[in-house]
Amino acid sequence: MAGLxxxxxxxxxxxxxxxxxxxxxxxxxxELAPESKIWSVIKAKAYGHGLEGAFSGLESSxxxxxxxxxxxxxxRTHGWQGRILLLEGLFHEDEVPIAAELRCDLVVxxxxxxxxxxxxxPHSGHPMNVFLxxxxxxxxxxxxxxxxxxAFHRLHxxxxxxxxxxxxxxxDQVDGLPSVGAQMECFMTSTEGLEAPCSMGNSxxxxxxxxxxxxxxxxxxxxxxxSPTGQHADIAHAQLEPVMQLCSEIIDIQDxxxxxxxxxxxxxxxxxxMRIGVVACGYADGYPRHAQDGTPVWVQVADxxxxxxxxxxxxxxxDMLTIDLRAVPAATVGSRVELWGCHVPVDDVAQxxxxxxxxxxxxxxxxxxxxxx
Amino acid sequence: MAGLxxxxxxxxxxxxxxxxxxxxxxxxxxELAPESKIWSVIKAKAYGHGLEGAFSGLESSxxxxxxxxxxxxxxRTHGWQGRILLLEGLFHEDEVPIAAELRCDLVVxxxxxxxxxxxxxPHSGHPMNVFLxxxxxxxxxxxxxxxxxxAFHRLHxxxxxxxxxxxxxxxDQVDGLPSVGAQMECFMTSTEGLEAPCSMGNSxxxxxxxxxxxxxxxxxxxxxxxSPTGQHADIAHAQLEPVMQLCSEIIDIQDxxxxxxxxxxxxxxxxxxMRIGVVACGYADGYPRHAQDGTPVWVQVADxxxxxxxxxxxxxxxDMLTIDLRAVPAATVGSRVELWGCHVPVDDVAQxxxxxxxxxxxxxxxxxxxxxx
Lengths: 373, 373
What we know:
2 copies of one chain form a homodimer. By secondary structure, chain A is α/β, with parallel strands linked by helices.
């Protein structure tokens, strides 16, 4: 922890960001989508990993896709010359000139945004790139098929460089409705004859619907080494590597007797005399409070990668969680613990908590120090 | 949003921290625990509210209780002269002189910490305050009843100013095991004859177990206006006020037809033709991905407090959520929305998401701008 500098840190929790894993995962995307350019999606502070590590590991991307114009500015300040896509476009009209100055590509998903762009004349004379969003069935953002063609012509006529875009609701599911096929059909019909590059595929499409990627792929979760479905087994074949490793330490050990209970609500009851390890990580660090008894937690038993997976027991509290140490007699106060990363896939923690890895990664709390490796 | 300065913000999401509500809630604590001094618990960056607003609203506390020594330093830098309690004590021996210099009171919960303090001689000559933690049944941190008395004598003999401390597992539940009564009995027996001030009561004890508070109360969640049980109805009588208000805007509206589906997985299916509002708030802002259809979202329909509560429909995504606008024909792109705060108790959102308000407040994401009012 000594290298963390400047911050006065006592709690032993730490998130490490492995930039080498970013590079590896981006290469895997390129192998899976060799015909496409790659928007690396780094919204939500790079899914909780922080912009700095993501920029460092993903600098060979064709562009970065994000949400906050503040993050676009950060990239420009740090020397990024390539393309930047604002995934939800602009939220207020007065941002149009700022986005133009930052040379951002803009998603346009509604009539209000369209009018702002019609009313704008860029100072530079350079035409801006627009990704016009079609609502092909997800019913979140985008123009309906009926509105789409007119919207395209209006922006094209105003001088914007046009691109088509849509988003899939179920590229990670076999039988979800609407299906990728139905959305693709809607997309093809709506864009027919409107010549422009297109962007469709998210991580799930890149992995499982290679006909539905388009000229610009938009990988997100797979760059971080987690699964679009929330099931680690589903991406085992894709050979992705986890980027974030969340570690902490055992800060106390309780020897409890058969029948005694652990933590809030006394949720866990000891089936025999046993040792309970208290780990300095709780839901205010971003660990899910929903985690059930049995959620895997890795405890190091010797230098290096030698360790044992122990089950979480008892309700996760704000700053701590408790684990069953029966399988690790060698564990002591100070033993290193991995909450997720190389030994415990974040998706396995998510699955034990009724959610997906995305949510856990994004939820990493500001109080957890981050180290870029 | 203009007053936010310095940050280049486009997304319309904003968390407001009402310092007046902090003051009101602290007064309520004093009325409920008139005999006790008050440790205001501001760990986890003041339960997600940020130290600045909490310090401003709670400066009449007798002391602040927290976890990160960095936060203790922040308080001293900002002029706090009163007491500070490190709720989990120290994590490494080299922090002992730092904590002494910052004039922190220390929890001591295990043998390792006890040895560090025995080995330390304060430069100032001022004795440090120690809160010795008894594990009276929660089985998380603390000395067992068998170890406690010896630990007390050792620290007392070394010259520390001693206090007793324990923590309840079920002060918010009627029939949870171990009960408050059982823990109290254990506490009384273990501390008998060891003269020292004691600290026991958390928010739940202050609200429902007034005989179990002690000389130093430790209110946390109630200072933020949420319920220890996770049920808003349980604190209605206590007249607490919500401190955080999380607001955003509608950024798109979809007119969908009967039978169409909304969002990832197509979870929600329209029972009739209807309007869907897309709100700029998702799980990467800290809104719970677990939120079920029907979770209340307040939509403003005119200036001031005039609004309508609409049900959330469809899976919460990373940056957006979708609501049923049938009850609000006046809603447009740009309409203001409250996710939780004055119109929607955070506990009601939590209850619809299988968790408690604590988790939601702490999970407020770093990308959400905070305004102190």
